[in-house]
Amino acid sequence: MNTQANLSPTGPIVIAAGGSGGHFFPAEALADVLVGRGYRVALMTDARAGKRTSGVFATADQFILPGAGVAGRGPVRALKGGLALLRGANEARSIMAKLRPAAVVGFGGYPSVPPLLGARLLPGSSRPKIILHEGNAVLGKANAFLARFADGIGTSFNEVKGLPSGAHVALTGMPVRPAIAALAGEGYTPPGDLIHLLIWGGSLGARIFSDIVPGALAALPLAIRERLQITQQVRAEDLERVRTAYESYGIAATLAPFFPNVAELMQQAHLVIGRAGGSSVAELEVAGRPSILVPLPVAASDEQTANAQALEGVGAAWLFRQPTFTVDALTPLLTMMLTDTGILTAAASAAAKLGRSDAAERLADLVETTLHHGSGGRYSSPIPPSPASSHSSSGHAATTVESKP
């Protein structure tokens, strides 16, 4: 949708996101598109994310608000977190009373609560549109609280458990980094002389892969093992022991706590092993890569399991619950798929069919239709819901937002 300048609202569009990169990458991608369409953006975030000195937000108004998570905490810490969120909401309300934004877009997690709650607390005549994006197949706790106030909700999955009945929901996909989006449509080349494995786990979830994957690879047949090229995210405190293990097994491995060139690594990967966060799953889909997924067991709503099941259900991934992710279970699976690489090719094709490289544009379309046409906007024909989940408390089928030239 190309909105002419005279149709653009005078106030900015506030993006509410913080915490991990999984929430921040899609927020930046949306902001890039909105700025390209002539809108002004502002950022409301938390102290963990801090002030952005590069990218689209570097030249935008930025506001760091107080707040803390409450899910999975003891009563005292939950109370302190709740009070911090209320302070943040009051501060956000005061800022927005002066800023007069046209809309506030939240990306889930506790950093999105103060801005969106603050927007809701404004008088009706000056209240901005409230739009949520849900990156998982289960509505997160923050979004579950905020969904009742939302004028529009964009989702990354066809069906999302926990959406309230009657919500204005649109399937937009998960915005990914531009370098990942550029991989869409490149296709998949099965392993040849070398087999590139990418193992990632995020800051919280990498240790299980350090404990299990080296031993599983060491047990592979020599004809496979000598072709392996491993790139693995490893926590700093585990680097030495994991490096020593790979060296002792004679397996070539590049290890680091963080890799800045994820798109390049994804492009060369024949198989990805990792967690199942919303952003990670979206990147696998856009790039069209087969994966072995081990959902993070401490996720508040077990959303990573639902994400992984969505890929497993179409043959794009293999799902292991963490207790079952063992050397004895992983080795035969790897042996099978690295011997018959047609298995990997089929999974890559299934993943690519789910990818939405234009998700940032679709989400921007949702923002615009909500601004100019009210709650829900004007969407295209809905995706037929499954009988088990249509408009129920356990699931909600989204309509599709078509990206417009």
UniProtKB/TrEMBL annotation:
Residues 371-405 are annotated as: Disordered. Residues 395-405 have a biased composition (Polar residues). UDP-N-acetyl-alpha-D-glucosamine binds at residues 20-22, 136, 177, 203, 304. It catalyses: di-trans,octa-cis-undecaprenyl diphospho-N-acetyl-alpha-D-muramoyl-L-alanyl-D-glutamyl-meso-2,6-diaminopimeloyl-D-alanyl-D-alanine + UDP-N-acetyl-alpha-D-glucosamine = di-trans,octa-cis-undecaprenyl diphospho-[N-acetyl-alpha-D-glucosaminyl-(1->4)]-N-acetyl-alpha-D-muramoyl-L-alanyl-D-glutamyl-meso-2,6-diaminopimeloyl-D-alanyl-D-alanine + UDP + H(+). Signal peptide: none annotated. It is a peripheral membrane protein. Coiled coil: none annotated. Residues 13-153 form the Glycosyltransferase family 28 N-terminal domain. InterPro entries: GlcNAc_MurG, Glyco_trans_28_C, GlycoTrans_28_N. Keywords: Cell cycle, Cell division, Cell membrane, Cell shape, Cell wall biogenesis/degradation, Glycosyltransferase, Membrane, Peptidoglycan synthesis, Transferase. Residues 197-363 form the Glycosyl transferase family 28 C-terminal domain. GO terms for cellular component: plasma membrane. This is UDP-N-acetylglucosamine--N-acetylmuramyl-(pentapeptide) pyrophosphoryl-undecaprenol N-acetylglucosamine transferase.
